[in-house]
Amino acid sequence: MKKILFALVAMLAMTGTANAQKYALVDMEYILKNIPAYERAGEQLNQVSRKWQAEVDALQQEAQTMYKNYQNEAVFLSDEQKVKREEAVIAKEKEASELKKKYFGPEGELFKKRESLMTPIQDEIYNAIKDIADQKGYSMVLDRASDNGIIYASPKIDISNEVLSKLGYN
Questions:
Q1: Do the Cβ atoms of 52 and 166 come closer than 8 Å?
Q2: d(CA 55, CA 49)
Q3: What are the residue boundaries of the structural domains of the chain, listed by start?
């Protein structure tokens, strides 16, 4: 009897605790679309990316041209000249590959540029969400844009507009 009573009291205590927790949702896509600095940063990244891709493409095109010229002239070249031309083509391909890795690799320039432009904006949003959560007593704030596990959520618990207001956007 004592065990059943203890289990019942424990379940009631847990239910009370679960009911006391408050949750909220934000829509990060919506928030980011309404922050002009984020849009400008994205455009800046696109411009830099296109510029760097053009540089890589130019080197790759140069390597292809060198290879085609080599193929067309191979019959007229000595073995020594063939080796030199092959090495030049390989060196040019390697240069293009290294440039691509430098710009677009996992720790490349584009990654660093994205981090330097986006991190301050993301930190500002995070701090605004944290402040609102602390003020209103939310135990958890979920991102409805990135969580496919949310099938339905009441618009009443969406604080996206509140976050934008806290950041100074309407």
A1: no
A2: 10
A3: 2-167
Q: 25: which strand partners?
A: 142, 158
- Long-range CB contacts (within 8 A, 24+) of 110-116: 110/45, 110/48, 110/49, 110/52, 113/44, 113/45, 113/48, 114/45
pTM for this prediction: 0.70
Round to whole Å and give the CA distance between 31 and 161. 8
10-26 pLDDT, tens digit each: 555 555 455 568 889 99
* pLDDT tens readout for residues 44-103: 999 999 999 999 999 999 999 999 999 999 899 899 999 999 999 999 999 999 999 999
pLDDT class for 150, splitting at 50, 70, 90? confident
Please say whether the beta carbons of 103 and 109 come within 8 A.
yes
